Queue: 2 jobs
Job 1
Amino acid sequence: MSGTICYLSLRSVSRSLASLENCTPTDFGQVPKGNIFVGYSYLSADIPNTSTRQNLNGWEASLEGKVLPFLGIVADGSGHYGTTQFFVCPAVVGGSCRGAVNGNFYNALFGPRVSASFHGIRPFAHVLVGAGSDQRRQL
């Protein structure tokens, strides 16, 4: 069942991309009313007292709506998933150490973005604030 859902969503994405191929803007100097970004994300971190890096794979998505040609409001979200191998030892004498943890990490961020066009390139800067949440399950 989940394979069917994935197949349908991939088909929808490919149709959307195919329809974007046929778009030809008449004026390249126009500023879009917004931006959408969806992509793969890789999270890697050093954990204290371990010799290996911990890695999580996931997604990143961003939606921007323009308020002025140079100012937009951004909503940004991400999710990372995976298994980490680090030990959490309780302070209680005789307690056991835990090993692998299967976890998810989510972020939701919001804020303003400023941008300007320079010779066909549109750099930007933004300040985003938000919250993060993690879920852990012992394996």
Job 2
Amino acid sequence: MNNPYLTPTGDQDECAIVANLLREWNLCPQKYEPLSQRIRDEEESELGSGATGAWAQQSMELTKMWCKVMAEPLTAAIGIIVPPEYERLSDGRIAAFLLEHWAVFKLLPEAASKIIHYFGRDIRLSLKLVHDPEDVGVEPTLYAVIRTQCSPREAMAILRKFDNEWWLDVSQDLDAPFCITAI
């Protein structure tokens, strides 16, 4: 059986497929949480305040299950269409991060182009998600890691130029924990 969200039709490309999935993902809480809340409210009015009945519990479980079902193809689709300049994603958490921070996902192709412009083609680009376990409640940071053959001093000089001429302006408008670094 073909999944209508994952099967290109006509002029749909991979980005359009992800856009369809993203739209469904974003509608998930809007579609199912009000139903869960209404059922909880009705049960509380019938059974008394604070009571959680079987229907409310089942409704909440269905909401969680639907969101999980939608997350799996989205994560796979995001991993497939990350620009080819970046190493293939092997961490589903990165795809989930990109799904949550769509502006970062859309910036990846331009960032790769600028990185190649400054560092040259003899580089490897990867995405790494870093979370400090001591920072409870703080969102992890996604790093675009540039692996270069340059000396550390030369790489830092190029990175400073990259930062000053492009990245610092772009990153100010980006409302997400995303950094670019060179090693």
